[in-house]
Each structure stands twice: as C-alpha cells, then as structure tokens.
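REQUEST FORM: STRUCTURE PREDICTION
Request ID: SP-0412
Submitted by: Lab K.M.
Chain count: 1
Length (residues): 372
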Amino acid sequence: MKHFITAIILLCCSMNIQAQDPNFYIYIAIGQSNMVGQAPLTAEDSVVSERFLNLTASDCDTHPTGQWRKAVPPLARQWTKLGPSDYFGRTMLENLPKDKKVGILLVAVDGCAIDMFHPEHSATWCAKNLPDWQRNEINCYAGKPFERLMTLSRQAQKDGVIKGIILHQGETDAYNETWLQKVKEIYEYLLKELNLKAEDCPIIAGEPVAAEFKGVCAHSIPTIQKLPQWIPTSAVVSSNGCPPLFDNLHFNHEGYVKLGKRYAYAMLKFMGINVKDETTGTKTVSQNAEFEVNGTFMKSPDYHGDVLLITSEKPYKTIEVVSYSGQTICTYDSKKKDAKSFMLPMKGITDKTLVIVVHASDGTSTTKQIKL
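STATUS: Completed
RESULT:
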C-alpha cells in the first residue's frame, strides 16, 4: 500500500512537471503609475503576437482574473493605457527563439509607495487613509495587491518559468537608502517564496522622467541608480531621451516604447543575449519653456478654509492641477488675458504632493511640484 501511494505521488509530480512549459518565459511587472501606463493607445498597439500573453491580475478588467489572454493593451486594468511592459514583452519576443512565449504578470497602483510590495509593510500601507481613486485601484486587487501578486506568481509557475522582474516605482519615495533596502528585501522575499535563483531571475528598474525634460521626480534618479550596488543581479535603465506627457511626471507613447525596449535589452543581457540598443539615438527636445511658478498657502474666509495661491511670472491661459499619480484634480481656464494668479481651494484634496502645470498665453508651459 505504501509503495502504491508513493507511486501515485510521483505520478502527480510528473504530471505537474509536464504541465509546466519551459519555453514560456514569465515576467513580473510591479510599480506605480508609470508601470500602470499613462499614454494613449494607438491602432498599432493592438497588433500583438499570439506568443505574447498577459495574466489578468486585476478584478477591474474585462477579462477574468487569473487567466492568460493575448497581451493586447491595456494590461493593468480596463481603463488604463500604454505602459513600459507592453513594448518590453514585444521586444523580448523579437530577440528570443521562435519557440518561446512571453507572459506578463502586472500589479501596479498609481502613486503607491514601495511598502505596498513589501511583505511586512503592505497591509499597513493599504490600510492608510488613502484618496478614493487610490483606494479604488487597491480594491481591484481585493484590497490586497501584494497577496494577489504572490498568489498569481505561484499560479503562473504552474504554466511557465518566471525569468525576471521589472520595476518602475520610486517617484513617491526613492530619495534615500531606505528605498534601496526595501527593494532588496522585496526581491529576496520573492526569490525565496517562489524558489527562484537570483542569477535566473534578475530585477530591472527604470528611472522616472529625466531632468532634461524637467522631470518632476528626476531628483530620485541618483538613488535608483545605486540599485546594482545593493543587488548584483539588477540593472537600471535610463530614461534619457524618453519624452513625457504634459505633466513631466509620466511618459508619452514614445517614452514608454523606448523605456520598454530598454527594459528588454537589459533583461536579454542577463540572459547572455546582446542586442544593439536602438533607443539611444537623437533625444527629443522638451517643448516646455521654463518660467517661474509659485505656490503659497493661505487662509481664506471666501473658500471656508485653506487655499493654495498659484502665481505665474507669465499670464496664463490654462492651469492644470494634477495629483502625484497623474490624476487630474482640476483644470482652470483664465477668463482674463493678463491673469497671473489663481486660488485653488484645498478642501477635499488629500494628496501630499501636487503637480501644477501652467500653460502660458504665449504657448509655452512649465511644471511646478508643490508638497503639502
């Protein structure tokens, strides 16, 4: 009887091994709004190989959670847009043998801190008093994005082989070595829990919008660039030459395509496949012209509370107020040709950082980050 039970167990294990496709390369994609993707989709983006698949991780999608489907964007949620994982996957396929498939498991929340992916801090961070839009995104993962990531990662291993991790997060908190330490702890936890070897599963991080485009979070880049000092099996891909959207916080379509390809080139290099980087040619010049914008907090009885007084050196045509994650809070069109100031009521605004985008009447624009 004991021999019979042993034989059954061995048979089940054999069947499980056979069910896993060694030619199916799966990549975990995690991060915040730039990993979610903020660029409008084009018709060309919907042309996707049958060998490029996405494992639906969000309940807020038109596809069933936990099922593989053709990786036609958007990959994060049904209302999202193009992100770096789209052209990461396509570029991987272009440079891998034709018998390989590529799968993406993407878990990302706009404006999230690195703690959301940390096994010890995720639950506490998700329980914070967060803005409604951010709470809604977390609820797309049943309120537990890290648990969803781990559950689907283990499920994915039954179908293929996890070959790497791509990370685009840091705009919120990559300003000191605490961020580096937490990324290291997250990486080591994933390797241990998923029984992966570091040399077989590198982690690639991407930089936020660069200083050449007046990137709102460019000052986090020096910290992110130190990641290989903490994790030998890691690399950082440059955002130089990757143009942003109007907010100088998120990339535009061209920026995401370049960034996605760079993620792939870095991942392929770890696999011993050297590919010429075709994205590092002529840099796109930012259209923004620098001029001074200031923000001052003050009490106003007219608005029954705090207001933010936004002043511009130039007369403005439009002022856009955007949350740190890229959500538009309000847009104000000037009724006066010479207007240089605007009072923004702060009631109901819970974000700790705002991005003020001022479009001057002469056609130029500039961006100002304001910490609350």
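NOTES: The longest helix spans residues 2-19.
Reviewed by: T.R.
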